Fold:
Amino acid sequence: MRMKFVAALGLTVAMGSALMVFATPPAGSGSITGKVTYTGTPMKMKPIDMSKEPSCAKQHATPVDTENVATGPGNTLQWVVVYISAGDEGTTTPSQGVRYDQKGCQYLPHVLPMLAGQQLQIYNDDQTSHNIHPLAKVNQEWNKSQPPGSPPIDTKWDKPEFISVKCNIHPWMHGYFVVLKTSHYAVTGADGTFTITGLPAGKYTVTAWQEQYGTKTQDVTVGGGAATANFVFTATPY
Amino acid sequence: MTLKKFAVTFALGSAVLLSASATRSTAQSHVNSPDPLLGTPSVATETSQINGITGHAEGGKMLYRRFCIGCHGPDGNGQGMNAQWIDPQPRDFTEATFKCRSTPTGTLPLDQDLYDAITRGFVDTNMPSWRPLNPQQRADLVAFIKTWSPRFAKEKPGTPLTIPQETPITIESILHGRELYQKLECWKCHGPEGHADGPSAATLTDSKGNPIKPFNFSTGERFMCGQTNRDLYRIFMTGLDGSPMPSFADVIQPNDAWDLVHFLRTLQVGLPNQELTLWQSYKAAHGKDLKPIGPDSAGGAQ
Structure:
């Protein structure tokens, strides 16, 4: 009788730990890497005239360009968010937050991906007031003034959404919060490349999002090493 | 005989009336909806609590059909048949974003905020005051308006702003408020003299992308969200959600906020007030020593 109880207890503990293993799968060693390019003619990015805000204008030796479609040599696209849109079982909320800066009357980075619920800190590094106005539709939109020297705004977004961010005082300032259900994402660099790491072997749906051209999706099977996924967007000049 | 004639006339009249109402109901039944005039709200029902009155969406629905549908539309999205002629556009209730709130930016308004908006109306817009409706009817309308967005069923309103007692109106207070107007860069939109002609004024759009003008303090125009100093305090502290006007609640201390209120009143040259009188006599004596507001003034802008 007593033996039976101990055996039953042992079994329960064993099952419990097995469940725990399944609940938090180990970070995988697989990765997805690739390049995002375009065909067609993209809209031309224009130099921004910041003369109305001298404290920002003087931070840029040459005027910076708008960034809606940031292209590089070889038809590459920068600021594309590539993320696992299905098949990701290993997402955990990171303890570290993400940081967004207003500097030289620009948003740095121009596109900031984050996990829903992840802490987001917004800094004003400029000598001028900004109002930070995320035009959320799924989440709730808000609009806060942040004069120079203010403490960072501490916030988070609860639901996945591509949120356009603007400053009404400096209308050229424009960026995106990309709120995702997954912690497995990457943003393409100036050369259009990205790498999503830490993926356990498995089948995934991968989505690439570009603010002007929307999303492209493909299925990718990850083994132990690096899988490849390239994306091609069709660019339009307007 | 006379009686018979009357009976015939009555019968004929009733027949005409009956056939008229029959035609009407046939016309209505063509619309593939249980309620031909209204779209389907996000949630079936809602209530509102205003000063001990409980509003019910069911009652508000009939009133909405009668009074609101023309502008705010059968789907509550601000696209009623009159909307194309109206600037600013009627509120889209499906977004649950409201300008006049006592709650922080990004949170739902109190029932009382919506009730006050209906009661007061919005000056300089097509939204009239609905004071002719009794308090129960207005409370019912608040309850019905909340059915257009699922957020009211899921979330609580934000914690309303606490407004401390107003500080005395003094020259010191006005001067400090003027410094804040410079430092917080209110002038970037509202202009150095409050004429709505700041450097960013021409570029402003609301959250739907429609052009919008900053408030012009000088014309004698009244504030959309209430006329008192407390209303003015609340407007810039909570911001006007859906518009370019941000919330300053995190960056202005309560006493400083009263100073800014006092200064803003001095910009209302078209609307005589106590602050303006005090300011004008001060300016007559010390006007030359005042640095003009704007980019050239010391405020780190250069």
Observations:
- The CA atoms of residues 28 and 159 of chain A lie 26 Å apart.
- DSSP finds two helices and 19 strands in chain A.
- The first strand of chain A starts at residue 30 and ends at 40.
- The mean pLDDT of chain A is 90.
